[in-house]
Amino acid sequence: MDLVPPQSNILGSNLVANSTATPISTTAPPSTTPSRYENQKRRDWNTFCQYLRSQRPPLSVSMCSGAHVVEFLRYLDQFGKTKVHNQTCPFFGLPNPPAPCPCPLRQAWGSLDALIGRLRAAYEEHGGKPEGNPFGALALRIFLREVRDFQAKARGVSYEKKRKRPKQKVEPSPPLIADATAASK
Fold first, then answer.
1. What percent of the chain has pLDDT over 70?
2. Residue ranges per domain, the chain?
């Protein structure tokens, strides 16, 4: 598997085209600007590749596993903006705490889930095989489920999966002609 990380910085500057790099999107013509989603996916991919290069020893994307992705998400927690109360905090489980507390700011579960979705797509666009995708690993899914459940408890909100409502049958209304003739008599 030949996964080629783009040769750009973590801030997502323009990619330098070379013969070994695979373009992120081949569906849009080159004259159009990439969508917001495509730009975010490119920035996320660049950030993940930069993270792998900063490891000692540096890792290649092809050697990456679900455990490496979990460590990347833990690394990203330091840049989070969501207050997540510890179990020892007096405001643990309160949806609207009445006062500030020293609990850490973390990445929100929804942000992590969306990030993994974008990285999963980017991995396959860069030549990765779907069955070897580290962004779909069981360890990662378990980690995300634990983050979701803990953050829901910390906020005092239970997380329940949205269920589809069964379609209600619409009963046909009686014909209007019969009503008009009955009213005229």
1. 68
2. 36-155
